[in-house]
């Protein structure tokens, strides 16, 4: 009995054989794979021209040289040469024309000089922090194509509308936790200054990370600024937040409780620990970390106070600024101690935040400084977009989300409804 190949497998075999045949033929004729006259260039040219011919046939309603076209009122009228920039470099193609110039191709549109993949390459390189000059040089080196700085700027400017839409998209009704953090960038506004860009990251009821937005600040923002940011988030559909984690930003706690009356303001434990290390010699970091762990893992506030007293006795004389910092942050640290271990794990989980911050830092570091605030926001948005194909930056917050969800549902009874966004 003869075995019949699956049609999909058969197609893959045919395609592989065709590729091998083309490569062998190119090698025999001394044709390179890449380059202006290379095999990939010629294949791309043939595919684009075939697709354009098919579009012209559909437009006219008859095949080339078909007698049905006689007296139809419109017909083919030769071709015109056009060079388009593709992922493999510039490709010269012949675009068919018709007599009455009504043909409007879609594969390669009129006045289009780049295939869409090139725009995505530019946006990807911008997200990595490359300047317009560096991207232009990249295209010259890799593709042998000249792409001006103005063209690259126009490509990235197209994303501003997308960024505005993203910044105003509807959000979930409830977030168990929202983190508010700052990324500092250098902006040249007369002189180079450090500007904070504030990022809000939510943990959804389904246990996903959701980057809610990015806001430019001036530094030293107060309650009025924060109330405008939180009101914007609220107006996008966020009716309730259980916990907002932040790091000593002036006026923010008051604005949080104005926007969401029942929200608990929690100082960021990770930032508190990191700020501790800033005051201490590096050789003591490991010992300090060990001595602080019993404080933030204590079962109650009284137990945490006892452990912190021990920490103070050991380190207070040498590093009094650390003790003062913890004392000042204590009222916004202690809510953490009332939570179930699963909720504590969500608040202390840094992977989902660090992946965002690492992308931002890499992009910012590569640029050095930005000419405008808008340029900085655009770069950070593109970095956010690169985290996920949808541009929403979604990712799992924790592998063991269900225990955390149960803990949130019990602690914040009546406020957490799975899939009830």
UniProtKB/TrEMBL annotation:
Keywords: DNA recombination, DNA-binding, Transposable element, Transposition. One of its GO terms (biological process) is DNA transposition. The keyword DNA-binding applies. One of its GO terms (molecular function) is transposase activity. The keyword rRNA-binding does not apply. It holds the Pfam family Transposase_mut. Required for the transposition of the insertion element. PANTHER family: MUTATOR FAMILY TRANSPOSASE, TRANSPOSASE FOR INSERTION SEQUENCE ELEMENT IS1081. Belongs to the transposase mutator family. This is Mutator family transposase. It comes from Williamsia limnetica. The lineage of its organism: Bacteria, Bacillati, Actinomycetota, Actinomycetes, Mycobacteriales.
């Amino acid at each position: 009995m003869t075995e019949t190949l699956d049609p999909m497998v058969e197609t893959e075999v045919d395609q592989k054989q065709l590729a091998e045949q083309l490569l062998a033929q190119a090698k025999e004729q001394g044709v390179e794979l890449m380059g202006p006259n290379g095999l990939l260039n010629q294949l791309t040219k043939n595919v684009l021209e075939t697709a354009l011919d098919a579009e012209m046939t559909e437009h006219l309603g008859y095949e080339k040289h078909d007698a049905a076209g006689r007296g139809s009122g419109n017909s083919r009228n030769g071709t015109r040469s056009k060079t388009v920039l593709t992922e493999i470099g510039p490709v010269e193609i012949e675009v068919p024309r018709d007599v009455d110039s009504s043909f409007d191709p879609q594969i390669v549109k009129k006045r289009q000089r780049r295939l869409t993949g090139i725009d995505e390459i530019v946006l990807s390189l911008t997200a990595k922090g490359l300047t317009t000059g560096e991207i232009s040089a990249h295209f010259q080196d890799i593709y042998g194509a000249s792409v001006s700085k103005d063209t690259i700027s126009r490509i990235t400017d197209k994303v501003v509308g997308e960024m505005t839409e993203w910044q105003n998209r509807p959000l979930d009704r409830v977030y168990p936790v929202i983190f508010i953090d700052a990324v500092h960038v250098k902006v040249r506004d007369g002189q180079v200054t450090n500007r904070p860009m504030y990022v809000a990251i939510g943990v959804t009821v389904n246990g996903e990370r959701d980057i809610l937005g990015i806001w430019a600040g001036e530094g030293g923002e107060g309650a009025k600024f924060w109330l405008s940011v939180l009101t914007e988030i609220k107006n996008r559909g966020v009716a309730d937040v259980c916990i907002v984690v932040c790091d000593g930003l002036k006026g923010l706690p008051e604005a949080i409780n104005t926007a969401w009356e029942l929200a608990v303001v929690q100082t960021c434990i990770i930032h508190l620990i990191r700020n501790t290390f800033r005051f201490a010699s590096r050789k003591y970091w490991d010992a300090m970390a060990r001595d602080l762990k019993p404080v933030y893992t204590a079962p109650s506030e009284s137990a945490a106070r006892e452990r912190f007293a021990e920490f103070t006795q050991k380190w207070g004389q040498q590093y009094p600024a650390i003790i003062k910092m913890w004392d000042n942050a204590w009222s916004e640290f202690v809510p953490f101690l009332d939570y179930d271990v699963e909720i504590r794990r969500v608040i202390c989980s840094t992977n989902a935040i660090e992946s965002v911050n690492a992308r931002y830092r890499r992009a910012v570091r590569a640029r050095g400084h930005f000419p405008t605030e808008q340029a900085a926001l655009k770069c950070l948005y593109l970095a956010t977009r690169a985290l996920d194909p949808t541009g929403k930056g979604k990712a799992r917050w924790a592998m063991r989300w269900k225990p955390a969800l149960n803990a949130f549902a019990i602690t914040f009874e009546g406020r957490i409804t799975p899939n009830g966004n």
